[in-house]
Amino acid sequence: MLFRSAIIYQCVDRERAAGRSGRVCIGKVTEPCKARAENPHRDDKIECDEREFVLWSLLLRKEVAALEKRLDPQQREKFRQTQDLWLKYQSDDCRLPYVLFSREKAEFSGPACTIELKAARALQLRAWRDALSVGK
To answer: Tens digits of per-residue pLDDT, 31-79?
Structure first.
């Protein structure tokens, strides 16, 4: 797992250093995993999604903690409130495929939604943290 997290973390660091968002890093683990000949089955592909989900979850936690360290108590409280709202939004939004689609399609759409939203949030928090660092 450590190697895979390094793939994502290093990709995000490179992209941010180059002045880019880091969105190209989304799927860096899932896409090659799903493309491997030894992963032809639905369960294999779901496991690939689970790996990337865990990695973006870890990076998101890391970015939350890093940003919180830069905030004063009032900002930190507001950030935590907003983060709680974001978590509810992400959970509700990514449950929708299970209502809209068949079980087979939802098994891919739901996790893909969660990966996308977690990754986007981690990248957003990283950008905000980077912006706070400018001029300090």
So the answer is: 998 899 998 888 888 899 999 999 999 999 999 999 999 999 999 999 9
- Tell me how far apart the alpha carbons of residues 14 and 9 are, in angstroms, rounded to a whole number: 9
CA-to-CA dists, residue 11 to 31, 46, 74, 131, 134, angstroms: 15, 23, 32, 19, 21
Token pair recorded at residue 57 = 């979850």
Mean pLDDT over 14-35 rounds to: 92
The answer to whether 123 touches 129, Cβ cutoff 8 Å, is no
Please give the C-alpha separations between residue 116 and each of 40, 41, 97, 104, 136, in angstroms, as whole numbers: 23, 22, 14, 19, 31
Determine which helix (DSSP H) or strand (DSSP E) holds 15, and give its type and residue range: helix 2-17
Residues 6 or more apart from 51 whose CB is under 8 A from it? 1, 4, 29, 30, 33
- Say how far apart CA 2 and CA 79 lie, in whole Å: 29
For the question of whether the overall pTM of this predicted structure is more than 0.70, the answer is yes
